[in-house]
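Posting for a labmate who doesn't have an account.
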Amino acid sequence: MQKPLIIHDPVHKTIILDEFEQMVLNTRHVQRLRNIQQLALVDHVYPGAKHTRFEHSIGTMHMASVIGRSLSLDVDDIRKVRLAGLLHDVGHSAFSHAVENVLKRNPSLQPDVMGKKFIRHEAFSKDIISRIFPQDNYIARYVEAEFATDPFDFFDEISRIATGDTSSISKPYLAQLIAGDVDADRIDFLLRDSYHTGVSFGLIDVDQIIGSLIIKDDNVVLGSCDGSTYGDDMALTAAESLLISRAHHYTAIIHNPRTQAARVMLLHSLEDALECFRNVFGQDAAKDEILRFFTEYNDYDLLNFIRSNASDSSIVLLDDLRDGRLYVPIARLSQKILRPSTRMALSTIARHGLATKRLEARIARELGDVLVDLTVASGVPKSMRIVMDDKDGFFYDESALANGLVRAISRQLSLTAFSHPDIVTEGDSSAVLMELGRVVDDLSPRLLKFTREDQYLPIEGIILLFYTVHSIFTVEKQGFISIPRLRHITWLYRTIRELSTFPRLRNLFDYSFHERYGFPYSEKVFEDIQVLVAMGIVDEDLRYYEKDGRFRQSYEYVLTWEGVEYAEVLSEAYRPELDEMFSYLSINKHSIRRDMVTIPSNRYTSKKRPAGVR
C-alpha cells in the first residue's frame, strides 16, 4: 500500500491524500492544471495571483471532506466528494474563463464530443471524468476492488457530483457540496484568491459557515443543529458573509479595468489566431484545436498557439500583454449611468456570446483604434434553502441582505473601450464617453433585434408576461394610475411552466423546472427575474406578513414604467406570442394573485399618455 501524501497548503495547512487520490492526482488531466492559473491574467493587477487550478482543486477536495465530516457523511460518501472536488476543474481551458468565452462567441467552432456540442467547461469536466478515467487500467482495477462497482458507473456518479448535476444520483446533496450556493469550490476560491491577491474581501468564517449546513430532504440547507432562534440567525449571518465576499470578489478582481484590459487583449489575439488557423486548416481542424484547449493545453501551450497562427498585429498585442503594456480605459459605461432600456439591452447581449462579439466589433469600428469589452457578472446564487422554526424556505426570502446582494451581483455590468497606452492623449475623456454612449444607444437595439431573429430570448418572454399582466389590470383616470403588483414569485414559476406547454410559446419559455421544494422551481427563471430587477425593468418590493406565529417576508413584483416602454418595443417582435399570453391570462385572470397599487400618474409614467392599454 502506498503511503499517504502530505501536502502543505498555504490556505488549509496540512492536506493528506490517500493511495487512490494520489493515483488520480498523478493523471495527466489533473497534472495539466499545474500550469493553468486560477485567476487568468489577474496577476497583472495583483502580482501574487499566480496560484493554479491544481492547488485550488486540492483545496476543494479538502474543503469537501471538512463539510462532509461536519454533516456526518459515511466514509464512502466522503471519499466520493473528495474525489469530485479534486476533479471538478479537469475540463477547464487554458487561461480559464478568459478563453471559455470563445465557445459562446463562436458557435461555428463549438467542438462536438460524442455527438454533443460543448459550450461550458463543466461539460468537458463531466466527459473527462465519466469517459476517460474509467479507461485507465490501474484506476479501473482499484475501483472494482475498493468500491465493488463498475468503474464507468462509479465515475459517472463522480462526474455528476463534480459538476453539480443532481439528476440520476441517489444522494443529490453530494453534488450540492461541490457545486451549490454554499459549497467547497466557492469557499476555497474565496479564501485562496484573497490570500494570493492580498485583497481581504474574501475572508470568511469557514467554521461558522460549515457549522450552519445541515441535510434535509436530500438537500443541503442552512439551519442550526439545536433548532434555536439564535442558531437560525447565525446560520443566516454565516451565509450572508459568504455572499458579501462573493460580491466584493467580482468588483475588486473580475471587474477591475486592468483585468478587463488584459482579458480583452488575450481574447482578441486568440480569436484572430483561430480565424487564421481555420482559413489554413479548415473549420473541423479549428474545432479539434479548441477541444484541445479544454483537455490538453495549459497556459503556455495556448500562448504558443497564438504566436504560431495569429496575424502580426495580434502578435504585437500579445507582446504588449507579455510586457505588461496593458491597454488603458478611455471610456467606461456601467449600469449606474445607463438608462434602463440600454442597460437591459446590454445585459441581454452580454449573455449571448455571438451578440457580444458583434457589438464589441461594431463599437471598435465606430470609435477606431480601440478594443472593447462587455462584461456582466455570472453565477448568481439561486437556490439555497434555510430551515427556520422547522420550516424551510429560500435563503434569499429570509434575508433582505442576501436578496440585495444577489441584486448587486446581477447589476454588475460594464462596457469599456480600451486604447493603446502610446496613443492615449490628454483629450476630453467626457467627449469619448458621450460618443460611446451614443454608439451603444444606436447599436444595442438593432443588434438585439438581429439576435432575436436567430433565437428566442426567454428573458424577454418574462418581460412580456409582466407586460401582459400590466395590460390586463392597469387603469388610469383623473391623474392617478393603478398598477398590478404580483404577490409572490411562485405564481411566475407556475405560469411560465404552464405557458411553456403551449406550442407557440414553448421556445420563448425554454426553462427547465423541478419540484423538489413542493412547487415548480427554475433556477434560471429566478436568475432572469433578478436581472430584470437589477436592470430597472421590474421593481421588487419587500412585504412582511405573519404566519404560524412568526413574522416572515416575501417579495412582490411590479413592472416599472421603463419596463412598460421596453416591453412595448418587444411586442412588435413577439405579437403572436403576446396575443397567446393575453388570451390565456385574460381567461384566468381571477387566479393571478396581485395587489393594485395606486399612485399619481406623473410619479409612474415618463410620458403623459394612457398606460398599459392594448
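Reply:
Got it, the C-alpha cells are right above this. The first helix runs from residue 19 to 25.
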